[in-house]
Structure formats: structure tokens, C-alpha cells
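Posting this for the archive.
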Amino acid sequence: MLALEISSALLNGGYALGLAIGRRWAWPLGFLGTLAGVAVLFDAKLYAESLLNLGYAVLAVFGWVRWGRTEFKPAVGRRTNDFIMAAGLALATAYLMNAATDNPRPLADGIMFAGGILGTWWQVKRERLNWIIWITLNGIGVWLYADRGLWVYAAYSAVMAGVSVWGWFRWAEPLKNSKASAQ
């Protein structure tokens, strides 16, 4: 399982770096990395995270198609409804994980599940706020994965928190340029 965990972390790291610089080739890396993560996370009894990785794979296909249609230009907007739906999904997932599984960290798993869907959806839509979601989730991930003995994923999450900070600032550049050209 360690080799699969390492492969998943490396592929997903390449995905995050590719997205941070706005490259379409990142999506296939994310697709493969998340599929590898399904088994790793299921084995660690993080069932919602495992299911989430299947969802990531679907969103990676959608992202690949969508990013092939338009020029890279990050979006900015308010997403209050998205946050409310994600919070509700996190609580519902946590309840389900607590009631129906032997998941040792149902609330953290639920937050990672709902936040991961939201963050990836916003990546597909090129919403700059996705990086704030990922900074938060990667911080939680360091603790959650270490708690489950997934040390490679814990280290990967720490690195990805840094990549997410970089992505936040990197995606601001096209926005600055478009505002400057509009004036």
C-alpha cells in the first residue's frame, strides 16, 4: 500500500502544480493520482475520502474537457450558496460515517469530503477561491493522515498547503493583468 500511496501523492502533486500554472495537462495526473488514492484511503478506513477520490476522477475528466475549451482566466465571485451546501454535505457525511461505519474520524472525513468536492469544482470553473479551500483542507489533511498512519499523505498535504498558497498568488496575476488591460 505504501507504493500506491507514494504514487498517488506524486501524481496529485504534479496535478496541483500544473493547475497552479494553469495547464490542462494537470487533469490526467489528477485522474490517475486520485484513482490510486481510492484503495489507500479505503484501507485506512477513510471511506468518505475514498469515495471522494472517485468523484475527483470524474471531475478530472470534466476539468480536462472544460479547460480545453477556453483560455486560462481565473474567475472571481461570491459563492455563499456553495459554502452552505458544502457545510451541509460535510455534516451529513460525518453523520453517515459515524452511524454506519467504523470510521475513526467521521467529522474530519466529512469536511475533507465536502470541501474536496467544492475545491475541485471551483478548480474546474477556474474560481480563484479554490486555493483557500485547499489551504484549509491540506492543513486538516496533515493531522488526519498522520492520525491514520498515512505518513506520505501527511507530508504530501503539508507540501500541498504550500503549493496552494503559491496557487492563490499565481492565479492573482492573470486577474491583475486583465484589470490593467481593462483600464
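The chain has a mean pLDDT of 91. The two ends are 54 Å apart (CA to CA).
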